[in-house]
Design brief:
Elements: H1 6-19, H2 31-41, H3 46-59, H4 63-68, H5 71-78, H6 85-100, H7 109-112, H8 120-131, H9 140-150, H10 159-172, H11 178-191, H12 210-213, E1 230-241, E2 245-246, E3 249-250, E4 261-262, E5 265-268, H13 274-283, E6 294-297, E7 303-306, E8 310-321, E9 329-330, H14 341-350
Parallel strand pairs: 1-8
Antiparallel strand pairs: 1-5, 2-9, 3-4, 6-8, 7-8
Helix pairs in contact: 1-11, 2-3, 2-8, 8-11, 9-11
Length: 352
């Protein structure tokens, strides 16, 4: 296993300084902004995450302001990014910084790990970029770069692989320039050693890349035991009363959309026709005391919304009623509530 290889680190950093993209979080060492960017960019492409970073830093310029904000406002600002536990953890961690650390971010890897939602990767990134601590980052980009260049086929989602790649990254790191090294290897994976069609012809490591020499570019990195995707069939009910009200309900308990709002829904084992939909509405008492209802199916083909471990096959039903014996909100206020992107897309197309 290569160790303390200054040639690798020097080449990588030199490539980075020549090729790095201009990003607002690269113009600061403020740990609050670095932390924000790292949380937002988890499982999110830069192009998608950048507008959210700018929105959050404008709305909450300090960790104190973020900590003091209502969680519902944070979820609303996060809307569309997915993996909403990140937003809830973001809020909780900000409150920890304010209450446990007197509004000053921890300045080392070990203390950063204590913050809600901060794992090895995020703690390493903040510690190295903000405080020059030689803590190596290992994310999806790093796994890909190291597995290809050094020909490592240890599964990246195994305990052995996690330890092996962390040790390798730590050994290769330029300990005098940890911030540059970490940002360089992540950037290299993001724009040079990409998952598909990497730019091998113009790669600074193409003379030593094991995956290139052995034609294994598309085999590495190795990942095992992919989670089986579950199919779910959801029927969302957009209720419209004669007075211009509708029904939104907040998700409680644990789950990816905890704290978000959505329309009432019926979950079925497969697509529902109108007759079965009507029967289900009555049997589940979703519209109490409603006798007459005008039902329109919005989409004939289910809208497929893909999450990490489940695919939602979704049908929206528009139900007009005179009045309803449930708590309602004015339809015109519906955009004020944080909702999953699936619901947000429907609202965008159907509600002025």
């Amino acid at each position: 296993m290569p160790k303390n290889n200054p040639v690798f680190a020097n080449q990588l950093i030199e490539w980075y300084l020549d090729n790095k993209r201009a990003m607002p979080w690269r113009e600061t060492k403020n740990p609050y902004f670095i932390w924000l960017s790292e949380i937002i960019l988890q499982q999110t492409r830069v192009a998608q995450g950048l507008p959210y970073y700018l929105a959050f830093t404008e709305a909450y310029p300090t960790v104190q302001q973020l900590a003091a904000a209502p969680q519902e406002d944070i979820l609303k600002l996060w809307q569309g990014l997915g993996y909403y536990s990140r937003a809830r953890n973001l809020h909780a961690a900000a409150q920890m910084v304010v209450t446990d650390y007197n509004s000053i971010f921890p300045n080392n890897y070990r203390e950063l790990l204590k913050l809600k939602g901060v794992g090895d990767y995020t703690a390493s990134a903040i510690a190295s970029i903000c405080f020059d601590e030689p803590a190596a980052v290992v994310d999806g980009n790093v796994y890909r770069v190291l597995s290809r260049i050094f020909g490592i086929d240890t599964p990246i989602n195994s305990s052995q692989g996690i330890k092996e790649f962390k040790k390798l990254a730590s050994g290769l790191m330029d300990r005098d320039r940890p911030a540059d090294f970490n940002q360089a290897i992540m950037e290299f994976g993001a724009i040079q050693c990409t998952p598909k069609n990497p730019y091998c012809l113009h790669c600074v490591f193409n003379d030593r890349c094991v995956a290139l020499q052995k034609s294994r570019i598309h085999e590495l990195p190795v990942k095992i035991n992919k989670t089986k995707v579950k199919k779910r069939y959801l029927n969302y009910i957009f209720i419209k009363t004669a007075s211009g009200d509708t029904v939104l309900q907040q998700r409680t308990g644990k789950g990816i959309w905890q704290g978000l709002y959505e329309f009432p829904f019926i979950e079925a084992k497969g697509p529902l026709g109108e007759d079965r939909f009507r029967e289900s509405v009555k049997s589940q008492n979703l519209l109490p005391n409603v006798i007459e209802m005008d039902i329109t199916r919005y989409n004939d083909t289910p809208i497929v919304h893909k999450l990490s471990h489940q695919h939602l096959y979704t049908t929206f039903w528009i139900v007009d009623v005179a009045e309803i014996d449930r708590e309602t909100i004015p339809v015109h206020s519906i955009r004020n509530y944080p909702v999953p992107v699936l619901i947000a897309n429907f609202i965008e197309k159907n509600i002025d």
